[in-house]
Amino acid sequence: MAVELNRMLREDVEHVWRLPPVTGAVSAVRQHAGVVLAHWGVSPETADEALLVVSELLTNALVHALPPAELRLSWFHGGGLGTLRVEVTDGGPIPAAGPACTEVDPDEHGRGETIVHALATRHGMHAHPGGVTRWAELVSL
């Protein structure tokens, strides 16, 4: 009986996108993710924060990792609380091809991880054969 009640009070949904390595892909996936979050009933504040996390993790995957990149959004809702999990899996780091680029403007790059850490309730990274998954969870009331 407890298992049946738990299933009735909890709604879990998931959506997955593959990110093509082309200009504008992050923006297109972010817009689609916004539609999905609204459909799931995620609060506007949590959705805004989640879309920023999505942008940062996807951009990191495109700039610093091998394709393919994949975004997975999971919404666990029950008992008045919701947890949104954002996962981006990529093909792992791009092998170093020469000297490091020293012309990167620190005002334009390098803050993504800090932003994700500030917005997420929990976050982490998991290396596995064939790639790396970076994830963040945001809790919504």
Structural notes for this entry:
The radius of gyration is 17 Å and the shape is globular. Helix 2 packs antiparallel against helix 3. The chain is of the alpha+beta class. Helices cover 38% and strands 33% of the residues. It has a 5-stranded antiparallel β-sheet. Residues 1-9 have low confidence and may be disordered. It starts with a helix and ends with a strand.
Q: Helicity, in percent?
A: 25-40%
Average pLDDT reading: 84
Q: Could you say which structural class the secondary elements and strand pairing correspond to?
A: alpha+beta
Order of helices and strands: HEHHEEHEE
Q: What is the helix tally?
A: 4
Question: How would you concisely characterize the structure shown here?
Answer:
By secondary structure, this protein is an alpha+beta fold.
Topology, pairings included?
Layout: H1 2-9, E1 10-19, H2 25-40, H3 44-64, E2 69-78, E3 81-90, H4 112-119, E4 122-128, E5 131-140
Antiparallel strand pairs: 1-2, 2-3, 3-5, 4-5
Helix pairs in contact: 2-3, 3-4
List keywords for this structure.
five-stranded antiparallel β-sheet, 141 residues, disordered N terminus, 5 strands, alpha+beta, globular, 33% strand
